[in-house]
Amino acid sequence: MTDQPGKPRFRLGFLTHVQGRGDPAATYRNAQELFVVADELGFDVGWVAQHHAPLGGGGLPSPWTFLAHAAARTKRIRLSTAITILPLENPVRLAEDLSVVDLLSGGRVEIGVGSGGSDLEYAAFGRDVTRKRELTSEHLEVLRHALANEEVNGTAFTIQPPAGDFTDRIWQAVFSAPGAQYAAAAGSNLLLNRATYGYNEPTDEVQRPWADAYLEAWRQDRAPRIGLSRFVFPAKDKRTALDQIGADVLHAAQRFALRGAFPAGIDQLEALRRFHSFYGHPDEIIEELQREKVLPVATDLITQFNPAVPDHDAAIRALELIATEVAPALGWKPAVASSPAPQAAS
Q1: 3-state DSSP percent of the chain in helix, strand and coil, to 5
Q2: What is the reported pTM?
Q3: Among 80, 135, 284, 340, which has the minimal tally of Cβ within 10 Å of its Cβ?
Q4: Quick one: average pLDDT of 31-51?
């Protein structure tokens, strides 16, 4: 993937679902450390996923508290969610949180939103899951007005602190071509998941028409952005990678199969295929990603290890290999760090 005229610079991100295998405090500390490492390696964006119901080994219900802490520990990496479950949020309160973290981080905040879909989470928050798409649209409209420092909900109220310009910093997760067209019409950046569910075809074959529909529907003055989330786990070789990720991916696929998203009786290799996984030696991953059908139109590659929960040292090593070998071979270059502002004489 290389930059094209009129296309924003290709950005590299990583996404964590904040999962571990033991002490929640250690899980959260390790996830924070990934942000620090990614910042030092030159990753452009660090993303977290919001989950209220527990995942196996963890989960993050309060992403903006987490990202505020990450902002204090990092210097330049941008901070976002993929996704914030918008129907379960008060959009005015969410806008206030975004504005505060954006101010404290020096303008590094972005936000990805979506509807989620957990019946348990919707019930716990007193929301009707059958209205999830409608609620997402309603809350997104309020969120946009609030972040534009406009009066909200028919009152004279505007958020404090006043928000920066979020025009090109709102992302929408979609799972269909009509959803992609809707996101384009709203002026949102597009988020595509690491896998599609209910399809037998490879994920990139399913998603490429969605990306094309988004680009065809785009009518904004600025260039469109497409964020492509992919499971990328480089290691010494495929066997080493499988030792770290294979069992977790299979168990996750079996859970998806119980919900009907994947076929019953799934084995490990099919589970890896269904999760559209790129794993093994960096050269193997590079070759496979160069054949990825959505990547040529993406502006952001968002790498993740989920649903695997690799050991912390292996996760750090994978981030290093992504930043130093995989992404550069695809055309990525770290952003040039801006010079610090001159200090006033004392």
Answers
A1: 45, 15, 40
A2: 0.94
A3: 340
A4: 97
